[in-house]
């Protein structure tokens, strides 16, 4: 038997409503043992293994970015020495080595970045599906958008953060007294801001790099490449913190049961979300 109002959760009140739909009035009603799912074919699946893989790949990306920063600074040094004396004593061998070194570092970054994109999106979809079990009323977009939102130009600077916010809220651990605990989203916001800045600066720098013709323009663009790699390092560090935090939140939330506990105003917000 399911709730007479939402048809999603088991009833706990005499009139057949679940704790979420009953609101404060149903807070004193006994909670039934929480099964591993609340609707057919909707199960909690641990994101721990995927999270570890994402963290490892992000750590490798940090190493790749550090190598790119070192290679970029070396290229900048060689070019700056040539520009300083109008290339009168320009070291062609050192320039070739610097160019090859930076090319290798860039290829390493690209390879690791592709691996991160695949594994991170799989992890992101997993935690989104878990959030659907925890509390679907907190999700403003359907689960498929956890994958598709990343592939829409410009919109992918906004939509994944919106989805992540719903996952974060639904995964927040409830307090032991049955009240809802709001977990500050600082690490998620910092990660997202750093990632968007990295993407925007990367695209801007790529256009400047391919358009540069004069030695000074190339020199300035090289400095921008180094700055982009530095911001990417910050984004990767914050991404590690975000992935670890959200995965831990879901583990704690699952240990308390999959059903949202009753808290003042939550049932009204859930009903309004379904109605609109």
UniProtKB/TrEMBL annotation:
It comes from the Bacteria. The chain crosses the membrane at residues 50-73, 101-123, 223-243. Residues 91-248 form the DUF4328 domain. The keyword Transmembrane helix applies. Keywords: Membrane, Transmembrane, Transmembrane helix. The keyword Cytoplasm does not apply. InterPro entries: DUF4328. This is DUF4328 domain-containing protein.
